Amino acid sequence: MRTKNLHNQLVDWRHDLHMNPQISFEEIYASSKVANLLKEFGIEVHQGIAKTGVVGVLKKGSSSKSIGIRADMDALPINEINTFSYKSKIENRMHACGHDGHTTMLLGAAKYLAEHGNFDGTVYFIFQPDEENTLGAKTMINEGLFTKFSIDEVYGMHNIPGMEVGKFGTRKGAITTSENLFEIKFEGKGGHAALPHMGRDTITIGSQIIVALQTIVSRKLDPVEPGVVSVTEFITNGKKNILPGKGLIKGDARALSDKSNKIIEKSMREIVKGICDAYDISYEVNYETTCPMTYNKPEQSESATKAAISLLGEENSNGNIDPRQFSEDFSIMSDAKPGCFVLMGNGTKGSYGRPLHAADYDFNDELLVVGSSYWVELAEQQLKK
Q1: Which residues contact 82 (CB under 8 A, 6 or more apart)?
Q2: 125, 184, 186, 290: which has the fewest Cβ within 10 Å?
Q3: Which part of the chain has CATH 3.40.630.10?
């Protein structure tokens, strides 16, 4: 592995970032650390893109070819329950998605490439804020990421709990789903709990809507087309002896194609209309795609897999992995530029195998050398002399 001699340094950087997590557009600690380290490596640094975003520029040789590699820096509003020495020092803040590791792997690649890089062209190291609220990539692009910097193609990575360390995966086409948030507001007629026949109880009506929504995936989508419809909140203005007259249902839907997403939205609107019309109550449905699906371009997917095979061997490199049901705002970057999103195993045991966003999850330090070496391999392959 190219960066094996950096292992101890990488671990120190990652643990420091883990202890000092900050959420969307507040990543001042990580942003400052990244900028200072890049400057130490002799890399040109641009700060303040999307507030806390950082772009490092490393040019060697005379070629105009370039590659962008992106890592996310933000944490989550979670109270960490791990007990190791480097647990979060900040209440209700935790790196529960491994962005501390993503940032560290890209820093390791930057240091190696600055000192030993054998390539002809320019590498752009993109450190992005606010992936979790899906505004970071969009904001960086709006503030000139792809106009100020001549980036030919862009790559991103995520760790995957439950996949063995040293295993790689990507695919052509959709690799992560879109995220679609919905709100269903409806108003009936409240009243006394002992006199339900005199009102239009929104708990009963809302319960019917919630159950009916679960038929969308099972009865409206093609069985080979993945989709998810999850109700996450049901709010009314009822009390212990008061039947509510107002209801609000909130949730999250996921789809791996525009066609499936349109079916989900259309079916949801039809279900709500049918039930609310039957009870003669008013309603409103809001359905918003907050993050599009991540779509890997064929050429970049082949390049990403080729680099993995060179580093990890064919037996550990899956170029046709199953898509994932989470969303990623890297999708916005790869919509703007040819790109590919790749997955790396975080391990299967203990905190390394726990789900992303779990309070006892942890990024696996064994992945730091693997991931940073992969970025080196890819950069040198794409900018080969």
Answers
A1: 351, 359, 360, 362
A2: 290
A3: 4-176+294-382
Q: Indicate the fold that domain 178-291 takes in CATH.
A: Alpha-Beta Plaits (3.30.70)
Q: Cα(first)–Cα(last) distance of the chain, in Å?
A: 21
Residue 339 CA, chain-centre distance (Å), reads: 15
Q: Which two tokens stand for residue 98?
A: 């491994």
**Which helix (H) or strand (E) element contains residue 154?**
strand 154-161
With the CA atoms of 267, 271, 273 and 279 taken in that order, what torsion angle do they form, in degrees rounded to the nearest 10? 180
CA gap 188, 277 in Å, rounded:
11
| Cβ-contact 57, 43 below 8 angstroms | yes
Buried residues in 143-159 as b, exposed as e (16+ CB within 10 A) = eebeeebebbbbbbbbb
Q: How many CB atoms lie within 10 A of CB 297?
A: 16
pLDDT in tens, 211-226: 999 999 999 999 988 8
Q: Which residues pair with 347 in a beta bridge?
A: 161
Residues 96-114 have pLDDT tens digits of: 999 999 999 999 999 999 9
Cβ–Cβ under 8 Å, residues 157 and 305: no
Residue ranges of the chain assigned to CATH 3.30.70.360: 178-291
- For residue 231, give both structure tokens: 């109700």
Q: What is the DSSP code (8-state) at residue 225?
A: S
Closest CA to 127 of 38, 226, 201, 223: 38
Q: How many secondary structure helices (H) and strands (E) does the chain include? A: 11, 16
β-pairing, 191-192 vs 242-243, is antiparallel
CATH 3.40.630.10 fits 4-176+294-382, yes or no: yes
Structure tokens given for 385:
């002399």
Task: Show the tokens assigned to 6.
Answer: 């950096």
β-strand partners of 174: 295
pLDDT of res. 195: 85
* Angstrom distance (rounded) from CA 246 to CA 236: 6
pTM for the structure as a whole:
0.93
The burial class, CB within 10 Å (0-12 / 13-18 / 19+), for 233 is exposed
Q: At 266, phi and psi to the nearest 5?
A: -60, -45
Q: What is the per-residue pLDDT for 192?
A: 87
Q: What is the pLDDT of residues 269-310, one digit of tens each?
A: 999 999 999 999 999 999 999 999 999 999 999 999 999 999
